[in-house]
Amino acid sequence: MAKLIYSMITSLDGYAEAAEGGLGTGADDQEVHTFVNDLFRPVGTYLYGRRMYETMVYWETAHTVPDQPPHILQYAHDWQAAEKVVYSTTLDSVSSAKTRIERTFDPDAVRALKAEAEHDLTVDGPNLAAQAIKAGLVDEYHLFITTSVVGGGKRFFPDGVRLDLDLVEERAFASGLIYARYRTR
């Protein structure tokens, strides 16, 4: 059975999206990007909400941008190889291969995906992840914690949910970014 992983960049005070935008620095350097590439290369399916998909679909054509460094080209290749499921009631079509639209998030359908999958899945974006967390579907949490406190926005973890987690891996990067991987007990 595959794992469902929730992973995002988060501010030091726990926001996956700041009220006014950016989360600070540290997540866009080559060291971090190469680590992310290696970490998520085995992922077979990405679960996205519409907004996260619209951000990530860049990787469908990133390889066509001139002078891309090797770590960017590698991530584009890995992203293109994975299946994508976009949960949206408003999106009419998708612009990437290996991508389908689902109109509603169905926890039982995600359980079936996990049971049938040969490779891990990720759920990306705080709104969609909140649904998966509340349904008890998330097996691991991968936080990339910036050095910024942003004071508000969309929280990494949804309100009203109690989780008991085990820290299974951590790493600090030269940029100040901290990676922490937790497993659900």
UniProtKB/TrEMBL annotation:
Pfam families: RibD_C (PF01872). GO terms for biological process: riboflavin biosynthetic process. One of its GO terms (molecular function) is 5-amino-6-(5-phosphoribosylamino)uracil reductase activity. Residues 3-178 form the Bacterial bifunctional deaminase-reductase C-terminal domain. InterPro entries: DHFR-like_dom_sf, RibDG_C, Riboflavin_Biosynth_HTPR. This is Dihydrofolate reductase. It comes from Allocatelliglobosispora scoriae. The lineage of its organism: Bacteria, Bacillati, Actinomycetota, Actinomycetes, Micromonosporales.
